[in-house]
Amino acid sequence: MMLWLLPLVPILAGAIIATLGDRSRLSLGIMTVATLGTTLLLALLGVSQDWTATLVWTDVIRLSAAFVPVSAAVAIMVPTVALAVVFHATQNESKSGLARLIGLMILFTGGMELVVVANDLLTLLIGWELIGACSWALISHKWRKLDNPQSGLYAFVVTRTGDLGLFAALMALFTATGSFDYAGIQSLGGPLQWIVGFGILFSAASKAGQVPFSPWLFRAMAGPTSVSALLHAATLVAAGAYLVARLHPQLAEVPGFEATAIAIGLTTALAGGITGILQNHAKRLLAASTSAQLGFMFVAIGAGYPSIAVLHMIVHATFKAPLFLSAGIAGDAAGTYRLDRLRLGRELPVVAALTIIAIAGLAGLVGSGGGWSKEEIIKASEHTGFWLALTVMAGGALSAIYATRFQLLAYGRRDKDADSRATSAPGWVALIGIAALTMMTLTLSLLWFSPVAETAAAALDTTLPKGSTLVFGLSLLFVFTGIAIGVYLVRYHPALGATGPAAIASDWLGLPKLIDIVLVRPADAIAVAAARMDDRVVDRGIRGTAACGDWLARTAAKADDRVVDRGVRGTAVFGDWLARVGNRFGEAITDGIPEASARLTDMIGQDLRRLQTGLSHHYYAYIIGGVFAIFAILVVGA
Amino acid sequence: MLTLAILIPFIGAMTLAFMPKIERETARIIAVGTSSLSFLLLLVVWAQFDTGAGAPAFQALTEIEWIPSLGVAWRVGVDGMSLALSLMSGVLFIACTAWPMENPERPRAYYAWFLFLEAVSLGLFLVLDLLIFYVFFDLSLVGMFFLIGRWGHEGSQRAAFKFFIYTLAGSLAILLAIIGLVLSVDPITFDMRALIEAQPLAGMDLRGGLILLGFVVGFAIKAPLFPVHTWLPPAHVMAPGPASAILAGVLLKMGTYGLVRIPFQMMRETFADYALPLAIIALASIIWGAVVALGQTDMKRRIAYTSINHMGYTVMGIAAAGALLNGSEGAREMALTGAVVEMVAHGLITGALFLIAGGFWTRSKTYELDAFGGLANVAPRMTVAAVIAAFASLGLPGLAGFVAEVQIFVGTFAVFPWIAAIGLLGILITAALFLRLLQQVFFGDLPKAREGFPDVGLREGTVLAALLSLVILIGVYPRWLLDLIGSASSAMIGG
């Protein structure tokens, strides 16, 4: 049972902190360190002692949690990165609603831990949807501006669309095996196996911001920068790649699974790379890069190296989180996220220096952790085919281009005589989070020493792929070409993506527009039309009833002997009306309704006569009468 | 004990009705007190209820002869399903009587009708005699008719009238079906247990089909299912908040409960033959309810349509559970358990949502979504309650709706894979429609007219907190509820 503590502690603590109301930055910082520090300790303890947990709902439904090497590594990475990011948030995000923001971020981390330790699809789905809901709340954090909750809604609905895949997988797995355990997936065959495999892949692709779900990552940028950092590095988005990596042993046998994973990953890596290059918005550039980097992970998984994907995920977390935090600091300093208006090298020298360490990983430079894991992915894909390795290298070159653009545009130096800006450099406490993350990513450079890399691989219960020198050389060439192109773009096209066709293409190559036209608008139109159709029926009903009510009042006022007469006529009118309604409704929807309506008309008409006074004691009398009638029937029947 | 649980609110109602000069506060205290007392009795029954494998299906039985020649008697008793539903109703009645009156006129009569309705509702779930079941089924209309008509908003008479006529037509269909069913056993009996045992219509094709049709039409109107749902939205819009909560929380369950207790249990063969069409109607309700709800601009109508969607899930689970006589026991049991959990969960969640909507009327006299915005500025506690309730309604894990829906879908998939798969769209659309509602009402700019919008008070807050804690408890640790309900569904599927 101990393993439940790992998700439960941050979830409960987060919920409590979220409701605390205004607190000072210091006390929130202390609470964050205490909570997420405890979570990290629990993760370490749980991994070392191999904790497990189950929770019984019914005889057949039991939630379970356990570690495998892959999940152990991620379970430790998540609170580590979250600790730095959330602490950064306590010191840097705006004061209004800060406790709620911090609490929700901690809760979010707990939900992610639940996803990581889950050992069956139901437990997974619970964590999976929880982090989706947390992302809604976090993206909507500054709710006074309606744009933000709208973006939160977009993100939640897109990821929930993906969740349907998981629901489908869950249903199919249970139908086949009578349980939700991951272990059962291997034994599947036929269409059910296919549903499970592709349901999970669909779901993972939506969370990981792969094509065609990628646009939600842009909308998610409406949230505070710390949220983006957490979302992209350690939680929601990472969860997508984590899930496929975790279940790769069970899913590899599904026909077409690996090929589809490669296709999705590769498409996203290239499309995301191009989108990133064209972006003029600092956070969106990073968001596109996340899709692309997650695309690399999908490729690695499809190539049969899920552990390499997880290594890249960990390294990616340590360089992507500080980059987002850095973009946030730059955005705050300049009052805009427009890359062509930043160039804050002079104002923020420390941040610029920290950023360059992280950007090296994004660019995939030799010597950086990010460079190492990207090379490993290239090696892994070489085993599938040289063409795949080549395409991944091209994706790597795109990364180098947008990474270079980001660094030079955000932290390049402007001419001294340019108009001076009143920016205040953040104090050292505000930089602890980003510095800690940069240290982590710097430490991961050690992976270039093969003993360290071997140890990491051994911890994940895997071996590293072997690659040819030719491919390594080519890859270096691609990276340096990318950097050169990046420098060229910054020098000659600094405002790339600010206006014109590039700006239009930079919004995920038009994908959001397509989704809007093909899905969102028709869905809305259908809803409105359906509501109107339902209303027309209802409206008629109300009018008809009104007519009945009037008639009722009039009849009640008349003498008794005339009541019956009138009643009969009224019933006829009512019946007529109901038949018309039935007819109209029937034409609109189905053919079967008029018949049912006619039956109803008959019954209503008959009953109406009994009801015309509308007084309750009459009604009671009718019930008693009815009871006697039943008896009579029964007696006759007997 | 069960008889007492029905009698106490009835006595309370009579007291309020015939004792003049009872002040509003006193009336409220009497109402809350009697419904709590009745709930306590149900808790005692629950404490003594045996959910073990060998335990009898119906427990806490009492039988008093009434008309022996016709096999009519006052029979009460509970299984896991009816106990769970009556406990939920008990909670909801306490909540709704404790909730402040929306239209503070004639408090004595108002609370008297509430207690009357409670007696009738508990009676319906607790009796084991078909004739008395029918009487309670009809009496529930009377109670609701007056609550909507007399304490509703302007024009509520018409809505009440429509509600009454429509559902009365349904209950007439049920009456005919009951007569048909009862006449096919020899000797005649209205004892539900005997009828379940006898399966009187096994092997009768046409007659069985017609009787089933009668039940399905009647219960579908009450549930309500597409396309006989159109009485529901106006009734909800016009009803005062607490009456809406009871209408959605308790009265709609009578339809689905009846569907399980009578056609599902008493005519298994016929039900299995027609399970697929029923599942298709349920699917239509799921999708139609969700899509139409998305198109609504009135908060209460939107919630009302989601009820149609949720009752669709319930009936889908029931249809799947009854679709086969043998095979897939595990999945069918899960579908049925899920359907009953959905009834309980929907009662609590939608009850809370309608109470919140009622709070909006009390404060602003409108339900138009456009009339609100940015309320999180002035009513943070209400925002939190609405967010939890909305997420529960859209089936977020960790809240009660998920426990129900996941079981319904998983169970249904084994029997009707395509229907379950298409039905998943429902949970996507409800997600969109609830988030839009929250966004429109609570976020963005606060309109000038709403600057004085009061947050939930102590009494409202306590009621909502109690309902929503139950929703969370069921969502996180549902075992106590699933044990109770599971004992009934395994008996129904296994037997």
UniProtKB/TrEMBL annotation, chain A:
Transmembrane segments: 6-21, 28-48, 60-86, 98-115, 121-139, 151-174, 194-217, 229-247, 259-282, 294-315, 351-372, 384-404, 425-449, 469-490, 619-637
MF (Gene Ontology): NADH dehydrogenase (ubiquinone) activity; NADH dehydrogenase activity
GO cellular component terms, semicolon-separated: membrane
One Pfam family cited in the UniProt record for this chain: Proton_antipo_M
Statement: the UniProt record of this protein carries the keyword Transmembrane: yes
Protein name: NADH:quinone oxidoreductase/Mrp antiporter transmembrane domain-containing protein
Domain NADH:quinone oxidoreductase/Mrp antiporter transmembrane, chain residue ranges per copy: 118-393
Classification via Gene3D superfamilies: 1.20.5.2700
Subcellular location: Membrane
One of the protein's GO biological processes: ATP synthesis coupled electron transport
Annotated membrane topology: Multi-pass membrane protein
Keywords attached to this entry: Membrane, Transmembrane, Transmembrane helix
UniProtKB/TrEMBL annotation, chain B:
Keyword Membrane found: yes
A Gene Ontology molecular function term of the record: NADH dehydrogenase activity
Keywords: Membrane, Transmembrane, Transmembrane helix
Subcellular location: Membrane
Classification via InterPro entries: NADH_Q_OxRdtase_chainM/4, NADH_UbQ_OxRdtase, ND/Mrp_TM
All residue ranges annotated as the NADH:quinone oxidoreductase/Mrp antiporter transmembrane domain in the record: 129-430
GO aspect biological process, one term: electron transport coupled proton transport
Annotated signal sequence range: none
A GO cellular component annotation in the UniProt record: membrane
Regions crossing the membrane: 6-22, 29-49, 80-99, 111-137, 163-185, 206-225, 245-262, 274-295, 307-327, 339-362, 382-403, 415-438, 463-482
PANTHER family: NADH-UBIQUINONE OXIDOREDUCTASE CHAIN 4
Similarity comment: family membership: Belongs to the complex I subunit 4 family.
Protein name as catalogued: NADH:quinone oxidoreductase/Mrp antiporter transmembrane domain-containing protein
Gene source species: marine sediment metagenome
